[in-house]
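anyone seen this seq b4? input:
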Amino acid sequence: MAPERNVSIGSKSVNRKPEKIVLIAAGMYNILMASLTVFVYSNWLKNSSYDILQARGLLTKGVSDANSLVYVSQIYGFIVAVIGVISLMVASRYMKASSISKGVMVYLGVCVVFSLATADWLGLVAYSVCFVLYNARNKAIRLSWKSAGRS
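predicted toks r here
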């Protein structure tokens, strides 16, 4: 992550508790959805994908097409799980009071884009809220740096 700078406003430091709570909730949501995707949805898809593809006329290579569908859903589930674990790590390690990390901003932006691209609407809302909160607090921290004579 990018270097961080600390600042305190008056006698209080700017805490990151709201952002941490939202990011932890988003990470836990991602881990839950990944678990459901890998263990529940993939098993259901494994059992019924052949029939679904055959009924819609999309079965060209037989069982190979059905297995490919299962693999894609499992890969997606593992990617979502990794994003959830990284979110928990970012919330616990890199969101420090009165600090700004460009790496956290980039990570939250990537999560917003990924959630939008995969139509994960709850994830999109959670990561967008966290991104907005984090950037709003960054603006307050930067303004306090300017008023304190730091750059």
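The CA atoms of residues 50 and 56 lie 10 Å apart. The beta strands are 8-9, 12-13. kinda curious what u guys think
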